[in-house]
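Data deposition worksheet. Section B asks for the primary sequence of the deposited chain exactly as it was used as input, without tags or linkers unless they were present during the calculation. Section C holds the resulting structure in token form. Section D is free text for depositor observations; keep each observation to a single sentence. Incomplete worksheets are returned to the depositor.
Section A, Depositor: J.P.
Section B:
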Amino acid sequence: MIEIKNLVKYYGDVKAVDNISFDVKAGEVLGFLGPNGAGKSTTMNILTGAISASSGTVKIDGFDILEEPEKAKAKVGYLPEQPPLYTDMTVLEYLTFIADLKLVPKNEQLDHLAKIMTQLKISDVRNRLINNLSKGYKQRVGVAQALVGDPDVIILDEPTVGLDPKQIKDIRNVIRSLGKKHTVIISSHILSEIQATCDRVVIIANGKLAYQSDINALGEVSGDSNKVEVTVKNNADSAYRLLKTFSEISNIERINKSRGETLFIYETAPDVDIREKVFNSFADSKLSMLGMREVNATLEDIFLKVTNRSYVQTLEDHEVEVESEEDDELDQWDQAQLAAKEQEVVESDNADPDLDSVDNSNENMKEEK
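Section C:
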């Protein structure tokens, strides 16, 4: 449904988006993540045709956003971080205005808007001024305007910002229902919402693509360890000594719990699984094990690691570039100094004959006298 290839965006000399490429399938709910300043909003503004890219291509259902903007934009509904609401209108007046802008036929508008308001649970406030609505209702109206015209693609920038837990749950349910019929892209800093709502996640950092994966198969980041939780009853010291005997275990964290229970979290290399060996050793030692489970990486874990790694790598790259530039500058300075010295030598050599000529002239004058 959406194809993004080699997308680049400059603001002056600043590269806000740096050669990003990824696809979004039809009917997919994609979480689009990144730290502040990573280029998320810029990318989404390019997807909606609000701004143009410096280079690269964006296609919506096969239509290039630059070459066929009207056809591409007709496929997209957009909720920016600040919903574009006219607060002096009622909900129905506002949505009717949006329907006119999106060229929804007049004879279809009433039924079309009624379905959207029912879906967003805002029918009961349809005749109220938007200015008098709560934050949660305003956010729902913002989502509703994105749905007007029944676009194939819905792009939501921070759809749950400022909402209370109940309102967040309601919006989450709406987004899930949208995924049954639309392709949805969500940008949010609430990672738990992304993990609960989306099918796939794309993370960018410093304008570059840092990570992408299906939400149910969050892959291990290079260099990660495999973590396993072991809960024991009593004999915690003996359990700790037993775990220490395994050469595969690189680190053990001990957490004391209530009722004589202790939680151990041991780490191994990503491709090492010794759970069966650990279980058998506990059984042979007659140590009570209440439970064992593998600790899966959360979206938050991966987000922090890939964005931090990207930041460090960017700094390293920048340092290499600076060092290279400094070396070039030193080379240029050395060459300039060498050229200056050579010029001095040449000038000195040229000056000597003149001095000899002056001396000879003085000698000749003396002889004539």
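Section D:
The chain has ten helices and 14 strands.
Residues 299-368 form the longest helix (70 residues).
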